[in-house]
Specification:
- With 305 residues, the protein is of the alpha+beta class.
- The chain is 20% helix and 30% strand.
- It has 2 domains: 98 residues, Glycoside hydrolase family 3 C-terminal domain (Rossmann fold); 187 residues, no CATH class.
- It has 7 helices and 16 strands.
- Strands 5, 6, 7, 8, 9, 10, 11, 12, 13, 14, 15 and 16 form a 12-stranded antiparallel beta sheet that branches.
- The longest helix has 16 residues.
């Protein structure tokens, strides 16, 4: 879109009823120098044929709507999405889908991405000189793992990436082992967050060589549900991702919203690597992150010596 500056590029902004005011306001904050033209459509009241026409003709389309938290929740999404699916898939490279943001849109995007980008690079720089990584849950639990000399790190900071939401550094650690007490929220196509929201530290997880070997909780329903997920596919037990959220403005709300994964601190991603497995992020509400013996995060980031 930056390359279309001054070329009267067309942007479609569409939303459901719950996010209409936010969607309409976006165009008001676009710098005049970009010379973009905006069209707003309501996804719940507009005919699908018209929305598809605008998807086709636009240079960018932004959809803002609730899906997981709707009273009429459906695995195919809200009723207005299936008639648009084919056209959305055809033009996915010019799409921005903001689901479940609701009233927290400003919270998710309020921190300057230049600060986030610098923070991400500082984390990666510290990590490259470390040999070990550890996470302590604050309740006596800890997991540890080894960092390879050529450990691969991914930075999501809002620049040059299809994942627009800024604020994460992630890697995979092959030998994570230990026990943790999880408190926080979930992010997945499996609707844990919708059922449980943000939980207190009541879920105890044992991990051996980056594989979940046991869970227990004084909430029997939560324990049963989590075991059902784990036992559904062996790949669901694998810790595929060690993620570090770096967006200091994001809080946890239990909306099953992608921006919650950027909450400052640690999240562990289970599943998604093996065929038929489902990715499930455990986003911790608190805890301490260490590279070697240096505490890199304990409520705030520390890059000092």
């Amino acid at each position: 879109m930056a390359q279309k500056k001054g070329c009267n590029a067309k942007i479609l902004i569409a939303s459901d009823n719950s996010q209409e005011s936010t969607a309409r306001a976006i165009s008001l904050y676009c710098p005049d120098e970009f010379d973009y033209s905006f069209t707003y459509l309501n996804l719940e009241s507009e005919k699908a044929e018209k929305v598809n026409e605008y998807i086709e003709s636009s240079d960018l389309f932004i959809f803002m709507y609730d899906s997981s938290i709707r009273s009429d929740i459906n695995p195919h999404g809200p009723a207005f999405i299936p008639p648009l699916k084919q056209k959305m898939a055809e033009h996915w490279k010019k799409s921005v889908l903001l689901r479940e943001y609701g009233e927290f849109f400003k919270e998710a995007f309020s921190e300057d991405i230049r600060l986030i980008s610098a923070r991400n690079q500082q984390i990666i720089q510290v990590a490259k000189s470390a040999q070990r990584i550890a996470f302590q849950d604050g309740f006596g639990g800890e997991i540890k793992g080894t960092l390879a000399p050529d450990q691969a790190w991914k930075s999501l900071d809002g620049w040059d990436h299809y994942d627009l939401m800024p604020g994460e550094v992630a890697t995979r650690v092959e030998d994570l082992s230990g026990s943790l007490t999880f408190g926080g929220t979930f992010l997945s196509t499996v609707p844990f967050a919708i059922k449980y929201g943000v939980i207190e530290p009541v879920l105890h997880i044992d991990i051996e060589n980056s594989r979940v070997v046991n869970v227990r909780s004084n909430n029997q329903q939560l324990e049963d549900d989590f075991n059902l997920y784990l036992n559904r596919c062996e790949g669901n037990r694998v810790v595929e991702e060690f993620g570090i959220g770096t967006n200091m403005h994001v809080n946890l709300h239990g909306r099953n919203a992608s921006f919650e994964e950027r909450h400052a601190g640690v999240h562990l991603g289970l599943g998604g690597g093996q065929r038929a497995s489902h990715h499930l992020d455990l986003v911790f509400s608190s805890g301490k992150l260490l590279f070697d013996d240096h505490v890199i995060f304990d409520g705030e980031f520390n890059f000092g010596a």
